[in-house]
Amino acid sequence: MKIALESPLQAEAVALVAELDAHQAALYPPESRHALDMAALAQANVLFAIARVEGKAMGCAALLVERGHAELKRLYVRPAHRGRGVARALLQFLEQQVAPRGCSLLKLETGTAQPDAIALYRSMGFVPCGRFGNYGVDPLSVFMEKLLMTPQSLRSCPQGAEPGHPQS
């Protein structure tokens, strides 16, 4: 598997995002879907990664990078490739990309109808958190965050704090 930052405007990326949108539409009403559109995915502050096997796109993920943190906005793996660690590899790849950009926190919003996604995020160190950004109250939303261990955060991490888990 090869993962790289690529343009979201290429045909394979557009197809992956369309598949994700169709999947989300089957799970949630329009008011509970908070995805970036294709134009927003092409902005300079968005990192868009594609995972490929033998040159064929099998999954994608996007991070909206803001001052000090990044938000996972898209994560999709084609059904035939699920259960093979593709989503985990995409997230790990993007984490490596944002740490040098000064991001010390990853955030995400997902939905209650996606227990496998929630389990993946928990297994990767994400913990529940409160609403953030412009999200409204929605009983179908689940908010999570993960502290990234950058060189700066390691120096400022409180004594005894477990990496990846902020102190309460």
> Structural class of the secondary elements?
alpha+beta
Largest sheet: 7 strands, mixed
Strand fraction equals: 25-35%
General form: globular
Count of helical stretches: 5
Q: Return the CATH class.
A: Alpha Beta
Overview of the structural elements:
By secondary structure, the protein is α+β, with helices and mostly antiparallel strands. The chain has a single domain (2-156), classed as 3-Layer(aba) Sandwich (Aminopeptidase). 29% of the residues lie in helices and 29% in strands. It has five helices and seven strands, in the order βααβββαβαββα. It has a seven-stranded mixed β-sheet, sandwiched between helices. Strand 2 and strand 3 form a beta hairpin. It is globular. The termini are far apart.
What's the topology here?
Blueprint: E1 2-5, H1 11-27, H2 38-41, E2 46-53, E3 56-66, E4 69-77, H3 86-98, E5 105-111, H4 115-123, E6 127-128, E7 141-147, H5 151-156
Parallel strand pairs: 4-5
Antiparallel strand pairs: 1-2, 2-3, 3-4, 5-7, 6-7
List keywords for this structure.
5 helices, 29% helix, single chain, globular, Aminopeptidase, disordered C terminus, 168 residues, seven-stranded mixed β-sheet, alpha+beta
Describe, in short, the structure shown.
The protein has five helices and seven strands, in the order βααβββαβαββα. It is an alpha+beta fold.
